[in-house]
Please model this.
Amino acid sequence: MISGIFLDFDGVIMNSMALKLESYFFALDEFEFVRDEIQQLQLEFTGQSRNRVLDKMIAHITGAPPSEGELQRLVDKFTEHDEASRPRMELLPGAQDFLDAVQQSHYVALVTGTPQFAIDATLEHHNLAKSFRDVCGTPRVKPEILKTLMETHSLNVVECIMVGDGRVDQLAADTNNMRFVGMACQGASFEPALAWKVIKSLPELLPVI
Model:
């Protein structure tokens, strides 16, 4: 029996990873980094906040982390492009059907590395806020979010699943002894052999929850 469903957003509900990559290209265009390298790093750091990803990208490519002021400037550039891209985002096939099927019978929460202000605006734009009991973004981290939400709603971890496409999502589930479902989308970075289930679309979960 599954009573609690925790979902990542980009790559799980929204087909937005390519748009996020464009935002990283935009934020880092002054450095003339190789785009293939930026893309590979985006995949490696999937599920983390834009602040942490940009900090790690700069440190990896240049050998030194950016200053606090430089990092904030790059984050602001990313956010500018990301917000302009919001109308171009599209739901992944089957995502809305899944949310419609489970929102009344299950506790459903969105747990994302996107900043709270940005995910709130995106859900409002796409009329998705009503699909979730809770929506949690950064600066809080995913393991902490899962633990807090389970305690707040008196959820039994053995009846909960975390659905994500990144190692960060898998680690958050593992930290809380929660079953992890990996979304096998393009660019997924989780470990399939360690996942409870691997799916290609959310409706594949309906028969088992």
Remarks:
- The domain at 4-16+90-208 is CATH 3.40.50.1000 (Rossmann fold).
- The radius of gyration is 17 Å.
- Residues 120 and 129 are 8 Å apart (CA to CA).
- The helical segments are 17-27, 35-44, 50-62, 68-85, 95-102, 116-125, 142-152, 167-175.
